[in-house]
Specification:
The chain is mainly alpha-helical and 224 residues long. It contains 7 helices and 3 strands; from the N terminus they run ααααααβαββ. Helices cover 66% and strands 7% of the residues. The longest helix has 69 residues.
Length: 224
C-alpha cells in the first residue's frame, strides 16, 4: 500500500508540471500565430495603399496630359500677341477710315507757287499774321471774281515780282488756303503800305486792321 501511495503521489506531482508546460507551449504558439496574422495584415494594408497611390498618380498624370493636349502652352502667347497686334492696329485703321479734311481752296502746284511768290513779294518782311492777311486778300479776290488766284493777282494789280518764298510764307499760304484759317473774319480785299505811298482810294474803303507796315481794307460795297 505504501508503495502504491508513493507512486500515486509521484504521479500527482508530475502531472501538474506536464499540464503547465503544455499550457505555456500553447500560449507561445497562439502568440506567434497572432503576430504572424498581424504582420500579414500589415503587409496587405501597405500593398493596398501602394496600389491606391499608384492609381491616383496615374489618374492625375492622365488628366494633366489631356489638359496639356487640349490647351497647348505655345498657343497662349501667340493668341496674346495676335490680340495685342489687333488692338494696336485698331487706331491706325480708324484713322485711315476718317475722311481727309477738305481744303478751303484747292490749289494746284502752279497756283500755289504763284500765291507763295506774290505773298513773299508783298509781305516777305512782315510777321506771320501780316503774310496770312495778304494771302487772305488773294483768296477773297479769287472767290469774289470766280477766277484762279494767278489771275486775281493780275486783276487787283499785285506786284509783278516773284521771289522765292520762305517757309513762313509757305506756312501762311497753307494755313489760309488749305486750313481756312484767318486773322480777321472781315472779307479783306485791299491793303497798302502808308510808309511808302499815300492812297486816298484805299482809305475810302472800310478799314479793318493794321499789321506791321500794312493797312487792310474790306470793299465798302460788301459791308452794310
Amino acid at each position: 500500500m505504501t508503495g502504491k501511495k508513493v507512486g500515486a503521489a509521484r504521479s500527482n506531482r508530475t502531472t501538474p508540471a506536464r499540464a503547465s508546460n503544455y499550457a505555456a507551449e500553447t500560449s507561445r504558439t497562439h502568440s506567434i500565430a497572432r503576430r504572424s496574422r498581424r504582420a500579414k495584415y500589415q503587409r496587405r494594408r501597405i500593398a493596398l495603399l501602394l496600389v491606391l497611390a499608384a492609381l491616383v498618380a496615374g489618374i492625375t498624370y492622365l488628366a494633366i496630359s489631356r489638359q496639356t493636349e487640349d490647351q497647348p502652352a505655345v498657343d497662349r502667347p501667340a493668341s496674346t500677341i495676335t490680340a495685342t497686334s489687333e488692338a494696336a492696329e485698331t487706331p491706325a485703321e480708324t484713322a485711315e477710315a476718317q475722311p481727309e479734311a477738305t481744303p478751303r481752296y484747292a490749289l494746284s502746284d502752279y497756283e500755289r507757287d504763284v500765291v507763295e511768290r506774290v505773298v513773299m513779294a508783298e509781305a516777305g518782311g512782315e510777321s506771320y499774321e501780316g503774310q496770312m492777311l495778304v494771302a487772305q486778300c488773294i483768296l477773297n479776290a479769287a472767290e469774289k471774281t470766280g477766277t484762279a488766284p494767278s489771275e486775281a493777282v493780275v486783276t487787283y494789280q499785285y506786284t509783278s515780282a516773284r521771289p522765292d518764298p520762305t517757309q513762313s510764307v509757305r506756312d501762311a499760304v497753307a494755313a489760309v488756303f488749305d486750313d481756312g484759317d484767318t486773322v480777321t473774319d472781315e472779307p479783306v480785299m485791299y491793303f497798302y503800305n502808308p510808309a511808302r505811298v499815300t492812297s486816298a482810294w484805299h482809305e475810302s474803303q472800310i478799314f479793318v486792321i493794321e499789321v506791321g507796315g500794312h493797312r487792310f481794307f474790306a470793299e465798302r460795297s460788301t459791308i452794310a
